[in-house]
Design a protein that fits this description.
With 188 residues, the chain is mostly beta strands. The chain has one domain: YmcC-like fold. The protein contains one helix and 13 strands, in the order αβββββββββββββ. Strand 9 and strand 10 form a beta hairpin.
Length: 188
């Protein structure tokens, strides 16, 4: 009788352990814009300031979404599969080309000429026990400058999902929480 109880306890423990470690992908969107833009959306990435879309603003007859992170404000808009950024008083420039092929690069100017490269369109990001598939990975570099390189991953239906920064105290930074189109996304 004790052996049967021990066996049943072991099976129950095993099933609970497997159930608790199961990857949860149904909790997150699997499709949609790679940078959903709507006032009220925000992203909380670990060890960084919250990125919030506070409003829209018309500049040179184009409507931009105002992204605020700490004391920095950048204006974004989407056109033909490209995410275009603008820092005032400067000109706009493509920051994320969602139509780019893997290994394709372009110049993004935000006061410095960044070379942006589409590294992958198929990365799967694991945050806690949640897999987020089909993420786009962009690599940023200023040629001839040391310690500026960084990466940004965008996830379908979520936007900013992971950042990396080789010279930062925390080289990989994952999304902890987001509000996207009035829906909360967390990674339990």
């Amino acid at each position: 009788m004790i052996k049967a109880y021990t066996f049943i306890s072991a099976v129950v423990f095993f099933l609970l352990a497997v159930g608790c470690s199961k990857e949860q992908s149904a909790l997150i969107p699997m499709a949609g814009d790679y940078l959903p833009m709507q006032a009220g959306n925000y992203w909380e990435v670990e060890h960084t300031s919250k990125i919030s879309i506070t409003s829209t603003r018309d500049i040179d007859n184009k409507t931009y979404f105002e992204f605020v992170q700490a004391t920095d404000t950048t204006y974004y808009r989407s056109e033909n599969g490209k995410i275009i950024a603008r820092h005032l008083p400067g000109n706009e420039s493509v920051i994320f080309d969602l139509t780019a092929n893997v290994n394709e690069s372009w110049t993004y100017n935000s006061g410095a000429d960044w070379i942006v490269k589409m590294v992958s369109k198929t990365d799967t990001i694991l945050i806690n026990h949640t897999k987020v598939p089909n993420c786009y990975h962009f690599f940023f570099d200023i040629l001839g400058v040391a310690d500026d390189e960084h990466g940004i991953w965008l996830a379908p239906g979520i936007g900013f999902i992971k950042l990396d920064c080789g010279f930062c105290p925390y080289p990989f930074l994952n999304l902890e929480k987001a509000i996207i189109n009035k829906k909360e996304i967390t990674f339990p």
